[in-house]
Amino acid sequence: MTRAPLLITVACCLLVVTQAALIRRCDLAKVLHEQDLDGFEGYSLSEWICLAFAESKFNISKVNENVDGSRDYGIFQINSHYWCNDYRSHSENYCHVDCEDLLEPNLLSSISCAKKMVSGARGMRNWLNWRLFCAGRPLSYWMTGCHLN
Q1: Is 72 one of the annotated active-site residues of the chain?
Q2: Which of 47, 55, 86, 101 is flagged as catalytic?
Q3: What's the mean pLDDT in 40-45?
Q4: Whole-prediction pTM value?
Q5: What are the residues whose beta carbons fall under 8 Å from the beta carbon of 28, sequence distance 6 or more?
Q6: Of 56, 59, 79, 105, which alpha carbon lies 20 to 30 A from 129's?
Q7: Nearest 5°: phi and psi at 91?
Q8: CATH number of domain containing 131
């Protein structure tokens, strides 16, 4: 009988550990603005916000396993085969970063890597979800209510 409270406590702790680390839209806009992403390589802040929503629904801690064995990490779902090193499979590691660093709440590693990604010839076309949900669409509503003073 005394085990039940212990088991309930352990189960609650596991639930907390596995919860998503979400960032609010306007808080993300502020961080991206402070990191000079508005207009970076010709992409508006609204496009960056749309990208983050399309890829991770603003989940900083999201990790997605792909059929090829690679994984996508963080708010921008940066792929381990090309951009970061997950120490599980071969990686080009073009961003010179550990994939786990892309899950940090301060977002600096994710932003730095995303900047490198969009600086290439493909720009935001590196992300399928950006092409499907953001490219060529009116996106100004992503900034509605966000005050970046």
Answers
A1: yes
A2: 55
A3: 97
A4: 0.85
A5: 49, 52, 58, 75, 107
A6: 105
A7: -140, 140
A8: 1.10.530.10
